[in-house]
């Protein structure tokens, strides 16, 4: 693994126990200039993982707790007349930062959710005829609870497609849970997590990850996976070309984190479910047989032979 990135993973693991693979995927999303959705039940460390990454990187971090009464202006900002200059001035919203934690994104109204579309896709804010670029790096890390549906607004497909990855934390093993409970006796430790990387370092790693080589056979493997998802009887709507682009970016970032300058089929398989599963719409047969889109994607992948080189 890249030494500086390993230091970043180790630093986050000081507060997130037993979730190394989830941590690596979040870092891969950052290096691929993508956004990540963490979907899981309450209390498994979703928000703490996001905060730990932001604290480990010396960048501006904002958190917004999304509720039905949050307005788009709370996210993208607003313009108002300055009483001294009598000029219209922009007042930044929560999105004007390097790391934005959108906590419980599915509790925001569709109007507020849609305010994130341009922010996530274009990395800019357009308001009153002006365009404000966001800092680099910029990453939205959203959380949602899939169990409770009262007072929530389902994310539309267009919004889901903006997320490079969707991951789940899952429950810890008994030994890990004992460690978590023991660490809870010193809850302020997570707030004191030191920064081990600057935003300039992150931007350098982003550019280096873009340079990771990918052979034509690997790209053909990605296309075969996309086509298999579209032709499967388990799926009503398969992955789009944007999903293929996202899979390539994520695989390059995963290879880079692993310390390689080339992509292998195992990189594709490592990030495939996180990148493609939330882009699928399952058929009734897929829902009844596998329940989750992640399981369906793994089943589809088994029918696609991986390249030997």
Profile the largest sheet.
5 strands, parallel
CATH class of the largest domain: Alpha Beta
Which radius of gyration do the C-alpha atoms yield? 20 Å
Helix and strand content put the structural class at alpha/beta
Attribute tags:
single chain, 309 residues, alpha/beta, Rossmann fold, Helicase, Ruva Protein, domain 3, 2 domains, two-stranded parallel sheet, 13 helices, 13 strands, 45% helix, globular
Description of the structure:
- There is one protein chain.
- This protein folds into two domains: 3-179 and 196-202, Rossmann fold, CATH 3.40.50; 212-302, Magnesium chelatase subunit I, C-Terminal domain (Helicase, Ruva Protein, domain 3, Orthogonal Bundle).
- The chain is α/β, with parallel strands linked by helices.
- Helix 2 crosses helix 10 (241-257) and helix 8 packs across helix 10.
- It is globular.
- It contains 13 helices and 13 strands.
- The longest helix has 17 residues, at 241-257.
- The strands form five sheets. A five-stranded parallel β-sheet has the order 3-6-9-1-10. The protein has a two-stranded parallel sheet with strand order 2-11. A two-stranded antiparallel sheet has the order 4-5.
- It has helices spanning 3-12, 20-31, 46-56, 72-76, 110-122, 157-160, 174-183, 199-210, 216-231, 241-257, 265-276, 284-290, 293-302; strands at 36-39, 57-58, 61-65, 78-81, 88-91, 99-103, 124-127, 130-133, 139-144, 165-167, 197-198, 235-237, 281-282.
């Amino acid at each position: 693994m890249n030494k500086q990135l390993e230091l970043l993973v180790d630093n986050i693991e000081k507060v997130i126990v037993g979730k190394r693979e989830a941590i690596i995927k979040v870092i891969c999303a950052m290096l691929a200039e993508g956004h990540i959705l963490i979907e899981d039940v309450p209390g498994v460390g979703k928000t703490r993982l996001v905060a730990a990454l932001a604290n480990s990187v010396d960048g501006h971090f904002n958190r917004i707790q999304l509720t039905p009464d949050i307005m788009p202006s709370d996210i993208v900002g607003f313009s108002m007349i300055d009483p001294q200059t009598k000029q219209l001035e922009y007042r930044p919203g929560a999105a004007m930062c390097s790391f934005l934690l959108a906590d419980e994104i599915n509790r925001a109204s569709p109007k507020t959710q849609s305010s994130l579309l341009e922010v996530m896709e274009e990395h800019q804010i357009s308001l009153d005829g002006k365009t404000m670029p966001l800092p680099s790096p910029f990453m939205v890390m959203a959380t949602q609870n899939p169990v409770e549906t009262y007072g929530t607004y389902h994310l539309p497909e267009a919004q889901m497609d903006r997320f490079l990855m969707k991951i789940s934390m899952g429950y810890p093993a008994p030994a890990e849970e004992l460690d978590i409970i023991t660490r809870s006796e010193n809850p302020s430790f997570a707030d004191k997590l030191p920064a081990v990387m600057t935003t300039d370092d992150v931007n350098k790693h982003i550019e280096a990850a873009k340079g990771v080589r990918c052979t034509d056979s690997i790209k053909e493997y990605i296309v075969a996976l996309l086509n298999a998802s579209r032709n499967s009887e388990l799926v009503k709507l398969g992955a789009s070309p944007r999903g293929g682009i996202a899979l390539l970016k994520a695989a390059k970032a995963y290879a880079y984190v692993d310390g390689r300058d080339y992509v292998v089929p195992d990189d594709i398989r490592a990030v495939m479910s996180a990148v493609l599963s939330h882009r699928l719409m399952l058929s009734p047969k897929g829902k009844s047989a596998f329940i989750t889109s992640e399981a369906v994607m793994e089943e589809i992948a088994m029918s696609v032979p991986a390249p030997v080189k």
